[in-house]
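sry for the spam today, last one i promise. struct tokens for design, 331 residues
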């Protein structure tokens, strides 16, 4: 027969810390009006006693499950992996568990995942770069007590939105290429279901002559798809001297394709990406790209969601701008 060790309770923590159980509860739930020295003493006792909140009991006595859902389109993409890490850091600070769901850019799978999370009664959901149709999205988001949408606008009631300034970022990349003397620019654009991809494409078209012959579309932006797209574009337009890529993964593949075609980077053709994933500074030549601190972004997204869960009114729509990082692929 298995004997379970007696669980440490809030009362145990309160007794050792010489405070009330209510004070311990307020420290655990990050409430204000607790003196810093009291908070520090309670947290020290929590660590010493290895106390863990009983989420099952708390969910039975309250209206919370102490769980949030995080939905991403591609967890293998380092961009989303680092955002998720930032979200998880803040969730841990709030004593919440995270259910991470990877939809592999499949709207049908995303729809099923959202219904699963609603059935599990999560307290809130974060959806990163959804691929759902505009008429599906609001209805599904409104199933949750709190929701935050990353990089997609929505008409859903009470949904908070955090956007990247994608179009403005691509305009900045084009201006940088043109300042470097590049005159024949092409683009490897992202998937048709990605609103971020559409914004980046709009930015490229607004900053150039908008010639569709200079644009190659890929549904999933990875190294292999970037390689194939660049091969196709260079075969069609061999005089390209600048290439804007939807993300860094596609840009890495594009640089490989350029070399396969006997074109040096950046001598014959400059290549730029977007996201500044770790690989961007490790390859040769190092990649010029747009940077956003993804962990900080994930923390911001999570803090906004928890403010919504706690009944606060966070900024409904926030826009984050990129930083241009100039490296060897487009000096």
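last one done:
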């Amino acid at each position: 027969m298995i004997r379970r060790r007696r669980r440490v309770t809030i009362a145990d923590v309160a007794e050792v810390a010489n405070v009330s159980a209510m004070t311990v509860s307020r420290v655990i739930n990050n409430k204000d009006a607790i003196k810093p020295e009291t908070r520090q003493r309670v947290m020290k006792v929590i660590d010493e006693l290895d106390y863990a909140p009983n989420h099952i009991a708390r969910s039975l006595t309250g209206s919370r499950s102490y769980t949030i859902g995080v939905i991403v389109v591609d967890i293998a993409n380092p961009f989303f992996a680092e955002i998720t890490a930032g979200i998880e850091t803040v969730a841990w600070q709030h004593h919440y568990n995270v259910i991470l769901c990877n939809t592999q850019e499949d709207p049908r799978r995303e729809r099923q995942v959202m219904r699963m999370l609603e059935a599990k009664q999560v307290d809130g959901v974060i959806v990163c770069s959804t691929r759902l149709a505009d008429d599906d999205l609001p209805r599904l988001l409104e199933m949750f007590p709190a929701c935050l949408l990353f990089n997609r606008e929505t008409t859903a009631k009470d949904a908070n939105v955090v956007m990247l300034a994608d179009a403005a970022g691509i305009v900045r990349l084009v201006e940088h290429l043109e300042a470097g003397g590049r005159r024949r620019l092409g683009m490897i654009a992202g998937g048709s279901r990605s609103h971020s991809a559409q914004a980046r494409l709009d930015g490229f078209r607004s900053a150039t002559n908008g010639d569709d012959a200079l644009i190659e579309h890929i549904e999933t932006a990875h190294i292999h798809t970037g390689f194939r797209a660049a091969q196709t574009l260079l075969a069609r337009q061999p005089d390209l001297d600048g290439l804007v890529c939807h993300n860094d993964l596609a840009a890495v593949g594009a640089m490989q394709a350029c070399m396969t075609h006997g074109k040096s980077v950046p001598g014959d053709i400059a290549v730029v990406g977007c996201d500044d994933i770790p690989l961007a500074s490790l390859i040769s030549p190092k990649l010029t790209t747009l940077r956003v601190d993804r962990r900080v972004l994930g923390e911001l997204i999570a803090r906004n969601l928890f403010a919504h869960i706690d009944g606060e009114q966070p900024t409904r729509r926030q826009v984050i701008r990129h930083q241009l990082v100039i490296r060897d692929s487009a000096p």
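The mean pLDDT is 90. ok im logging off now
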